[in-house]
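Supplementary Note 3. Input sequence used for the single-chain structure prediction.
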Amino acid sequence: MSLLTIVIKNLRHRRTRSLLTVVGISVGIAAVVALTGLANGFQTSWEETYRARGVDLIVTRVTSRTALPTPFPSTVVDTLRALPGVTAAGGVMADLMSIEDSPTMLVTGWETNTFLWKHLRIDQGRLPDTEREPVVMLGAITAEALKKKVGDPVQIDTERFTVCGIFTSEALSENGAVVMSLGSMQALTSRDGMVSFANMKIDPALGPDGVRRLRETIARMFPNFQSFDASQVSQANIAVQVSKAMSLGTSLIAVAVGAVGVMNTMLMSVFERMHEIGVLLAIGWRRRRIMTMILLESMLLSLVGGFVGIAIGLAALGVLEWTPVLHGRIAPDASPLVILMALTVSVALGMLGGLYPAWVGARMSPSTGLRHE
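The predicted structure, written as discrete structure tokens, is reproduced below.
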């Protein structure tokens, strides 16, 4: 009889306990997959937004560590627009606002007559004509959620606007967004002459070295500002960093609980099988083989729990993607790397949870085991 056959037989002999242990592990792994997938999706949605707009460089103020940066004078955008190598620039204002009976949404104001609007595909209606026109454009998913069409009124905080257009964007998050002219957004938030971001297009002829020098120039001109490209947006956005930190922290707690569950199960198994282990030692089994047997039992339980947890986590992401809060705003991203990480965590969990019980079993003397009933 092979060692693996003995391991499977031992686990099947204690089906209820093995099943409960698998359930505990699967919950922890499901949390890892779901939370990591959400955090990755949040990060990807921010990066896709800037790529869809064709933004090469984003400049913002860094005087505070909030989800949305501190506004700064729009004259900064004018200064940046005049720098050598900058082909276009546009000011953006963003804020979280209540829209009628819907959950809080991200509302953005874009400077009119800039490149920021060119990537939108207008499904119905038109773009805002002027900076102060009291109109908004809705992403296709937002329009569906709010049940609005062109010409309908929409209440944003205390102000009433008219829907002038409905659009589709390559960036999923923008399809679930509300966009208005920068002037209207400044009036709505009582921040005349202010912006949250400067979005810039750079002449490709500059090359990487030229862009680096441009960023150094911006840093010298505006010491309290920072510039970054779309691939660095997650490093600069505190909301993305907080979501990833929360994901990691919660996952570690879930995995720790799973490891304790595995250790408890295997310790009880060792104490219940002391006579059996004593017999195996008496007939010539090496202590290393005893240790290997217990570790294999622990790792097999964790691996099964890992596969079950991955399935549950992926199913949970599929459900969350269609909830009103996330639908059209974030596409959870459970990449193969996340799946591989979850499997690695499940195996490591089994190893950690089984080490002490395996050590206890391997150190047992044959006489102690044989005396135990």
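The chain has a mean pLDDT of 81. Residues 57-228 form one domain.
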